[in-house]
Amino acid sequence: MSSQRDGGRRLVAGAQAPRVLVVDDEADIRELLELTLVRMGLDVDQAAGVAEARARLAERDYDLCLTDMRMEDGDGLDLVRFISESRADTPVAVITAFGSADNAVAALKAGAFDYLSKPVALDQLRALVRSAIDVPGRTVSPQSLPEPRALIGESPALADARALIDRVARNMAPVLVSGESGSGKELAARRIHALSGRGGAFVAVNCGAIPEQLMESEFFGYRKGAFTGADEDRGGFFQAAQGGTLFLDEIAELPLSMQVKLLRAIQERQVRRVGSVAEEAVDVRIVSATHQNLGAMVAAGRFRQDLLYRLNVVEIRMPSLREFRDDIPMLARSILDRVSMQNGRTARLSDAAIRELLSYDFPGNVRELENVIERALALSSGECIDAADLRLVPAGADLPARQGAGGGAPVDVSRVAMGLPLQDYLDHLEREAILAALAETGDNRTAAAKLLGVTFRSLRYRLQRLNIAERGG
Fold first, then answer.
1. CATH match of 11-138 with 3.40.50.2300
2. What is the pLDDT of residues 385-443, one digit of tens each?
3. Cα 24 to Cα 33: distance, rounded to the nearest angstrom
4. pTM of the model
5. What's 243's DSSP letter?
6. Which residue, 266, 309, 376, 426, is most buried by CB atoms nearer than 10 A?
7. Which residues, other chains included, contact 157 with Cβ-Cβ below 8 Å and sequence gap of 6+?
8. Domain formed by 400-473, architecture
9. pLDDT at 149 over 70
10. Could you tell me which of 439, 427, 432 has the C-alpha nearest to residue 465?
């Protein structure tokens, strides 16, 4: 079959239609794909193998290439790499054998925009094509994107992370963002979404904040009557992120039972609502994040290796603030300008305050820097914020742990509290008690919560509030 063309290019509403190259050594599949694409208003060329595809790519530009993985004269991955290197602005999607997760992940790593499984579901094909064809016209320039405050900086470590974010944004490959707590992992995910050109919503989910018994209904939705209180049909996170990006923060907190269900949803691109017998297709870009060592968790049997394989197609590591210390003055002034404007004030940092910030290690990274600046502005009375207004605890001035939470002598309150606001003093005591409990229990947070006499949920909240990253795996 050939689509009707005018001068070699079919016209749609007075404009040239986007052109798609379909590559497959099976004629009936090429015909099916072309028929579907033509009905979408697209122009289509066919190639029966890798060699013919290379020849067509040398003759003209394409808005999208769809290629099979295994063909008689070559491997579709070779074509993916060729297009990525010589036609970087041309999205390429691969068609893989059903259930072949290895092939799909290999294609995404090689630079493919997306993939489809055989037998090809036409609704998924249409969703993929709409996303790919629409991207060039809706792409946001990195230069025009409002800079997230945690990504401001000129240091090599931050510049490398930012460049990788910009490079993978248009790709549909799942991305795993790693880094310490407070290092800007969610802001990296938001930049990926903003640059992706995807028209759907950005939906952020803290996997550690959802009770295990509610996870399936929260992720996939439910039907009316599925359980007590289900008074109407309701979508979940996947439905809310349809056509957009689903950001799964603290992915390591997912229980194994939910990891299995998430893996299936990612592989099949379908979800089943609780109480339903039918599955529904979803078009969602997955970006996940963690401050934990997922490889060590796999070895310990706490995280599924096959899920990690699917999530970690592209890894972006966000550097700690200590790794781009030279950018602290620029970042601190930017934060102060924003906070001052919000509070209707004018303020600046003294040279002594800048030196104090540069000498501090910021275990809580950029999030802690923001807290320090906001607190200093609130406590200062004049326009100039000095070093004393920052109330930073000097390096090496760690407080001894409270007795009963890891041992040690009782804290000398009069010595420690001197010069510290009461809330800072209490926060520091709480931090030390938690760190001591984690050390005593080998970073087992359930055991640490029991030792401290608080619930696991309460401990998790305190870890987040105090910017304490779990050590090790």
1. yes
2. 998 888 886 544 444 433 333 444 444 444 444 445 556 667 777 887 888 788 777 77
3. 10
4. 0.64
5. T
6. 376
7. 319, 323, 324
8. Orthogonal Bundle (1.10)
9. no
10. 427
